[in-house]
Structures are given as C-alpha cells and as structure tokens.
Amino acid sequence: MKTEHAPTIRRADYQPLAWTVERIDLHFSLDPDATLVKSRMVCVRNPAAEEGPIRLWGEALERLSLLVEGAGPAAGTVREADGVLEIDAGGERAVVEVTTRIDPRANTTLSGLYLSNGGFFTQCEAEGFRRITYFPDRPDVMARYTVTLEADRAACPVLLSNGNLLEEGDLPGGRHYARWEDPFPKPSYLFALVAAKLVALERTVATASGREVLLQVWVEEGNLDRSEHAMESLIHSMRWDEETFGLELDLDRFMIVAVGDFNMGAMENKGLNIFNTKFVLAKPDTATDVDYENIESVVAHEYFHNWTGNRVTCRDWFQLTLKEGLTVFRDQQFSADMLARAAGPEGAVSARAVKRIDDVRVLRAAQFAEDAGPMAHPIRPDSYREINNFYTATVYEKGAEVIRMLHTLLGTEGFRNGMDLYFSYHDGQAVTCDDFVEAMAEANGVDLDQFMRWYEQAGTPRVKASGAWDAASGTYALTLAQHTPPTPGQPEKQPLVIPVAVGLIGPDGRDRPLRLEGESQPGATTRVLALTAAGQTFRFVGLDAEPVPSLLRGFSAPVVLELDETDERLAFRMAHDADPFNRWDAAQRYAERVILALAGGQASAVPQAFVAAFRALLNDAALDPAFRAQAAALPAEAYLLERMSPADPAALRAALIATMRTLGGALADDWLALIDAMRVDGAYRYHPGDAGRRALGNLALRYLAAAGDARGLAAASTRFESATDMTERFGALAALVQSTSPAREAALAAFHERYRDDALVLDKWFALQAGAWRWDDAVAPTLERVRALMADAAFSLSNPNKVYALLGTFFRANAAEFHAADGSGHAFWAEQVVALDAKNPQVAARMARALENWCRYAPALQSSIRPQLERVLAAPGLSSDVQEIVGKALA
Ligand code: TRP
Ligand code: ZN
C-alpha cells in the first residue's frame, strides 16, 4: 500500500540519479500466492549526476536476499526508508542481485503483477515495476532486459515478455519456462509479462523495408472469433505510420494481449501491448460500431507509442504529455485518415469533420470541466502527489490539441520535418517537452518560445471576438481578445499563441476569398490568424457586403469562443457555413442557448425557429448521415453543466427532457422517414458509411421514444427483437430504456438473458441502466436500481470495467439522478469510494473525481456534498490517490 503521507513531488526538483541500470536479468518463478523474482542488475554510475548511493524503489515486496558484487553488503552500506532502498557502492559499476517474494493473488490494485481469470499479467506504468522488484523505477533509467518465466504448464501454457523469444522448454513437476530478450533499452514502465491460458490470431506481414514480422493477438480460447478486427487495426496502423511518418516496426514480433481486469484502456509495453478486452474483442453480435471504432483507435494509439513514447520516452512523469498528447494526436489523425479513405473523395471532408466533432465533444465535456476545477493543471503539471491522478483529459486531450496547433501553424510538411529532427536527435533517449518543441522550432526556423506557454498555463482560454463593418471601404475589422481565467496557483496568465482559423460568409451563404489589409491579392477562403497579443485587430478588405464571420474553424485551438450571435445568425451558419465543424458547432451553440434558457426559466418552450433550423439540417440530404447524426445530437450534459452557473442538474435534466420531447414530437414524421431511409441491408460489416446510417437511425428511435411516439416505440421494439447486430439491438434497447415505454423492463431482461455470460456486453447493460433518465415520476430513483444491480451475479467491485460501467456512469453521466436533492447519491458515492479504495486506489480516485467540481453547484447541493467529501478524507488508511483528489476538492 502507498504511504498515507505521500509528499508532493515537484517538477522543479528533478535530479538525475547517481546510478542507473544498464542491463537487467529477471527470473520469475510464477505462483499465484508466492512468486519469486530474482533480479540481477548491472548498475553504472551516472556521469551527469552528483555522487550518491544506488537508489532502488520497492513497494509491497518481501526482500529475501540482497547481494552486491556477489556478496552480502558490508554493514552500514544499506538503508531502506520511505519505499527506497539505498546502497553505498564504489567504483563505476556494481552488480546488484535482489530476490523478492510477491503475492499476485493479493494484488487487487492491478498495478504490478496480478492475476486475472487464473493468468498472470503486469501493469507497470507509471510506478508498478517497483511492486515487482527493487529498481530505480523512473523513466530516465533505460536498461536492456532479459526475462525468464517459469510456471505451471497446464495453468499457464503461454509465457510472454517483451522482445524476442530466445528459448523455451519443459521443467520437472509439470512446469515449463521461456526466455525473452528485448534488444531495445527501455524504461521499467514498459516492462511486461503474461503467463496464461491463451490462444493467438497470427499474421505475418512485411514492413516497408521488406522485413517479415509476426503479429499476434492473444485472447482466451472462446474469443478467437472476436480478434480479427484488432489484427486488422494493427496492420492498418503499421501501414499508416510508415506512410505518414516513415516509422517502421522495429521488432520481429509484435503482440497484443487482451485481459478482462485492467485499470485503463491499454498499455504500450515494448512489443507486448496489454489491452483491456473492451478494446480488443469485437464481433457483430457483441460489439457496436462505436466499439469497432474505439478498438481501431486504441490499437493504433498503443502501436504509435512504439516511436512516440518507447523509442523516445519521458525524462520524468511531468513530461507525460510528451508521449500522450503526441500519441493521441497521431491516433486522431490516423482515425480521420481511415474514415476519409472509407468515405471516398466526395465524403472525405465530412468524414474528417465527424471525427473532429467526436474529439471536440470529449474535450469540451471532460477537459473543460477539469480546467474549471481544483484539479486544473497545465498539460505539463508542476506538481503532483500521485502520478496516476495525472493521466487526465488535460494531459491527453488538451495535450493533443497543443500538438495539433503546432501542426496547424507549421503545416503538414513542417510538422513532419520537426518529427524527423526530433527522432534524429533523441532516439533512445528520455527527454522533455522542451526537446520536442525545440526540434519543431529548429526544423522550421521559427521561434516557439511564446508557444511554450501552452505547456505552462492551466485553464481554458476565452477568445472574445467582435466585428466592425465599414460599408464605404468594404472593410471588415475583426477584433480578437484573449483572456485565461485564474486557476489554482496561477492567478495571472500571459497571452498565448492561438491559431484562429477564419472564414467570412457573404449574405448569399458563400465564403469570400480573404484579403487582409496590405495584401495585393485575395487568397484562400479560410485563413489561420495567429493571435499572440492580449488583443489584436485584423482588417479584411475588398468585401462586397457585410460578412458573417465563421471563427475557430475546425476548432483550431482549445478555447472557448465568445461571439455575440443572434439566433438568426446561428441558423444561417447552421445552413451555410462551408466549414462542417462550424456548421455543427453553430447547431450546438443554438441548442445550448435553447436548453440553458429552459433550464434557467427564461423560456418555457423550445422556440419554433430552432426546431425549423434543426429540421433543415437533419433533412439536408447533401450531408452524409454520420454528420447529420452529430448535428442532431444535443450537447453533452456534462458540457452544459459546465456552462451553467451555478450548475443545477435537476433543472438541466428537465430542460433536456423537454427539448428531446419537443424535437421528437414536432419532427416525428421526419424521424420515422429516417428510420426507413437509413436502413442498412445485408450482413453487418464495420464500415463508417454504414455506421453513420445506423447512428442516425438509432438517434431517430431515441427522439421518437423520448416523445412517447407510439410508432417510434413500436419500431424500437421490433428492431430490438429482429436486430442481427449489436449496434441496432443496443440502439433499440437504449431508445426503449430512455422512454416511458412499458416494454423497457422486458427488453432489459431479455437482453440480460441473451448475454448473461458475456462480460463486455453486460457492461453495456449496466451502463445503460445507471445512465437512465427518469422520464416519469412513477419510476424509482436510479440509485435504487444501481444498488440492486450491484447485487447482480455479474457485478464485481474488483473489476474496473464493471465499476466504470455501473458506478462511473451513474456518477459521471447521470448528474440529475446522482445529485438527487435528498443527498442519497452523495452518501452512496462516499460509501463506494471508500470501499473501492481498499481494493484499488487508482479506480477509487477516478470515481472520487466525480465530485471535484462541487463548488460549482447550487448551495443546497454543496451542503449535501461537503460532509461526504469530509467523510471520505477522514476514512482510515485512505490512499494518497484519493487523498489528493478529495483534499484538493476541499482546499
Ligand atoms: N500509457 C497508457 C496509454 O495511454 C495508459 C495506461 C495504461 C495507464 N494503463 C495504465 C496509466 C495504468 C496509468 C496506470 O496508452
Ligand atoms: Zn498513451
């Protein structure tokens, strides 16, 4: 267990270690209750550091022996305190041998070595390796590993570790062994082993330079028929990285392993990626289009880490966004390219916009909220208590936006040149974000000093835009002003470099070529303006009429754009903006305005003008279905709560229900027509075009069910019964559950019956119920349902997927029910966070974050939440993980 009083770690305190490790030989004698780990390390003095002892971190280890240069260390040369073993050593090199005993079965944290369904698995990022053996467990120690695994052959016929298999064979007593060697030096967080009963889907493919490589997807025997899509995603990822960045797989073998108990999505261990089953397994009967899409992007993400993360890694954990922001950007670009390719030349622009919209939805709902609360931090944080708490939307998603801005400012070719230079300088090194940005600057001959503020400042910048039209000269003056609100510890903010992509739409709905004052020729219809000062005015000349500005096209920067626009203007942009992202965004802004007016009591009904604009966009047959589905989906509840002050979940929910009912009812005939028009014939295949049609069809069912339309409910019931794939079956079920239909309970029961042995499908079933709105007062509060579901045989507090599906959905995606006025949800939260913390602090801390923004809620809710936060903080033996979250919330 972590010490209760983990100190705050500061980025400014970074010091190189006096000793690092060059080579390590590991020997595992695997046993569920008592695994012996023998480690032999060649330690070397670090010429770049001051003198000091060898420092080895260790946690939850039983140390059986320690030898230095083959002998027991001299008296007084070894000390252990605060989880660090210090050994005084002379000379330039020292061989240290440690034997430890660990208990995988007792390890419920899922960090280090643990058991899942009888197999052994590891998770070492960020600081799990120290739970396996004593080691300088920091990413700036890159060593070469050889690993010998020994286990019972019947229980664990497959023995895997990083790199290449050297040998394998039998041992007495029904045991066997395998020896692996990783040719590339790596940090300890990329170490992995798997010993389990698995089977592999295999492919041999050639890399761009013609090397044959073996690809494997390892799953439990019954899941082989769900491993194909992951394999195809891997092959597509390899090709994409070769074509886009000239980056090739550097190993002879690349493995993906699926495990059912996993704290996060997946992990990029060198040559041996370990995945949550959720991001590997798919077949039409059990996985939705969205699952297929997520698998493709997570497989790509982990594969791309091989270069951005593994070959070039982080010097320290403050640099996490160096690998995560960059790798998320890469997986976003990959997915956009895959969608564009599937859509063909005419559909490519729209397909890319759909992907961009998905990514921006996540950013706005999760990262903007994070930036507005006590956990606000720059993409490169200055301090932390528990690094696992900093695998955040800010480090990942905002980090990816920062890389995207570099891409926008430097262009595709300039960005590629920067990447090439980065690898040429830093391959095989552990580096900082400065190293990355310096390579980008040098390759492009530009100064990115001011740009570095994106790495230093927390908070979501506001960009206020205003325009002035001078008819006499045909000049449109666009004034942009930036301001970043204060965040904890950062009262003052400096101006950032903000790329603002701009278009000007004429009264005819068409973009005007843009000519800035001083330019001789009009140019493109979308231009990127670099806003670098607190305020700047840009003058566009040569215009024939007053334009309608379309700003931040493609969401060119992770900011809140403040622009006064009338309803008419939003409707105009919904109909005419040439930038599909902004067309969607205009619809979202209009919807937000309508919903917040209802929630705030400034309006009592959804305005007709909004319904008309919505209808026009929905029925625009020139737009592809995936885009129309995005445009017709209301803004996320979490995002709307963020825009409300004070946040009032009950009022917001009532407004959302009213809006859904109005749109469902007023457009009932349109929705019914769409259900028919969007039907996809033939056997299921994962294809973005089909997925878009199914998404729009499912949305139509959703709106009709919300409105209680009898024809819609009948269509949902029929589809639920006759569907041949999970996207349609689950879409119909979701529509029924999110309605007052009497058919919903029977449908839930039938679904459970059909998939009672399928863990991943049951996660959907749990999540659907935990997230359900209450469409009529006859229905019991969702909390009662959640409590009952915790008693279901399939539920377990020890399995993160189950916890995220049931509790995570209730806490984070059902605000109105979670924040019930009687405070029952808050008390339940405290109870569950404390119970989870005893098993798995990382998962508990994620759940704990559900209440961090409690100060944004109305006073009555605050009075209900505070005592529960205090109760959790006072719980005996609370992990530093949860302490950090709740402590910051109460500070
Ligand atoms: N590096 C992983 C990724 O982004 C994230 C990850 C997987 C992780 N498992 C973890 C982070 C456990 C912290 C703890 O691809
Ligand atoms: Zn990652």
Q: What is the strand and helix layout of this fold?
A:
Blueprint: E1 9-10, E2 19-29, E3 35-45, E4 54-57, E5 62-68, E6 78-81, E7 84-87, E8 93-102, E9 112-116, E10 119-123, E11 143-152, E12 158-161, E13 164-171, E14 175-186, E15 193-196, E16 199-206, E17 212-219, H1 228-245, E18 253-259, E19 266-267, E20 272-276, H2 289-304, E21 313-314, H3 320-371, E22 383-384, H4 393-426, E23 430-431, H5 433-444, H6 453-456, E24 462-470, E25 475-483, E26 498-505, E27 527-531, E28 535-540, E29 548-551, E30 560-563, H7 567-576, H8 580-599, H9 608-618, H10 625-632, H11 637-642, H12 649-666, H13 668-677, H14 688-706, H15 710-722, H16 726-737, H17 744-754, H18 759-770, H19 782-790, H20 800-813, H21 815-818, H22 824-839, H23 841-848, H24 859-873, H25 880-890
Parallel strand pairs: 2-11, 17-18, 18-20, 21-23, 24-30
Antiparallel strand pairs: 1-22, 2-3, 3-8, 4-7, 5-8, 6-7, 9-10, 10-15, 11-14, 12-15, 13-14, 16-17, 19-20, 24-25, 25-28, 26-27, 26-29
Helix pairs in contact: 1-2, 2-3, 3-4, 4-5, 7-8, 7-9, 8-10, 8-12, 10-14, 12-14, 13-14, 14-15, 14-16, 15-16, 18-20, 22-23, 22-24, 23-25, 24-25
